[in-house]
Amino acid sequence: MARHRNPLHPELPPVWRMADNPGEAILRAEAEAVALENAEVRDRFRALNELEEQQQERRGVTRRTFFAGIAATMTALATSQFVATRAAFGAAPGGTLIHVFLYGGLDGLALIAPADDGYLRTHRPDLVLPDEGSIPIARNFKLTGAFAPLKPMLDSGQVAFIPGVADPRLSRSHFQAQDACNLGGLPAETGGRGFLDALLDKLGPGTTFRSVGIGTTLPLSLVGRNPTLALNTVASLSLNGDRKFREPTANAIRELFTGIDHPLEDVVASGLSALAQAAQMSATPYEPAEGVTYTGPVAGAFKELAMLIKRGANVRVATIGTGGYDTHENEEPHEGGYLYRKLNDLATALASFYTDLGEQGNDVTVMISTEFGRRVAQTGSGTDHGHGGPMILVTGRNKRFSSSLLGTWGGFDSLVRGDLPEFNNMFDVFGSVIKARFDLGDADVASIFPNHTFTPMQLFA
Question: Are 407 and 424 in contact (CB under 8 A)?
Fold first, then answer.
């Protein structure tokens, strides 16, 4: 008798009876074993739900019994390879906002600087932007030649820069400043919730890909109560394991979490929807618009977003993070140098992205920030941590900036212990971009940034 038992599950017939072909018999046996095991776990969930209702109604269930039921159910679920990916449904108007964070602290004066300035020549002689190759912008400033790929968009009013951006709560610590920038304030003020997650409350429900973080981990700006996807590539959003078992596994998961009267039912249904949409979008290799190429990690992130936008994923908020801007030495902002190449890669990726999007990029705004600026004076071949960093804004053709240099600039007479001060508040800039992109009121925007009095800025023409 033992010779005929099915090793996968005692309730199944012998494997050899399940199909004529041995390979098909094994696959069918495995699939049916998974279905039986899932049914058992589903029954446990239903029993747990009943326990929960009895405990809430004080029908003789103790906390000990209730939590014992939870432990048993979670142990069963731990064997599943499915990680819940939540999603919301329906579309929200207002275009797309992409927040790019430059980790490390970009030296703003290596990006934009007053032209022919004596103070800069004295205090950072090796790091002054050269006259030759730099691009003139408004108010007698010049822009690094590394941004030449964006010159057509700059000339059409689609690119702008803001100097001296900071907040009193930002320190010179990378970790503290990065957290505060992404949360929209201090952790104690925000409850650890990101400012973009708070924004999602104002935008209402959306599609599965309404909120996306491109990268290995979800940035703090998107952490909170709203559903968000974190992924390196759309194609990577899939169930693990052998390809031939993915559909049976998804079906088994769907059966397991259907009709259980539990919050996980919606979570799993949404996650399976995300997996299905990702599989559909990545089934056909993505081909950018003619003449567009994406080279490098930053460009690759923009390529994923371009695919999502062009294939109708209705992305409303997205993030990209990129590092390497902590230039204590060998900063080299001149053509061919380290920071010049970093900025050129960023500008080239942005130019490729908007060219690739074409008409679909008309309602897309990119907001680029960093945790802090750097000190005005050079230290050897680089710069130390400072304040008053820069921001870069890029937008589609449906909006135009009022100038290529926005906000307040107080000059070098206003330095505070060698640093640019806060000429423009970071969260006023964030809020003003959000307000214009999504047509929100001042009160809605103000609620996104706790313990900050929002003062709108005039950014767009």
Answer: yes
Please, what are the domains in the chain? 2-77 (no CATH), 96-446 (3.40.720)
d(CA 390, CA 320): 17
Select from 141, 180, 102 the least CA-distant residue to 367: 102
Of 347, 301, 311, 372, which is closest to residue 98 (Cα–Cα)? Answer: 301
The dihedrals phi and psi of 393, each to the nearest 5 degrees, come to -125, 135
Burial 3-25 (b: 16+ CB within 10 A, else e): eeebebbeebeebeebeeeeeeb
Mean pLDDT per 10-residue section of the chain, whose length is 461 residues: 56 69 64 63 56 48 47 40 34 79 98 96 97 97 98 98 98 96 96 96 84 89 88 62 51 56 57 58 81 96 94 92 97 97 98 97 97 97 97 96 98 95 98 96 96 97 94
Q: What are phi and psi of 54, to 5 degrees?
A: -65, -40
Q: Nearest-CA neighbor of 269 among 283, 256, 280?
A: 256
In DSSP terms, 419 is beta-bridged to 416
- Tell me, what amino acid is at 167? D
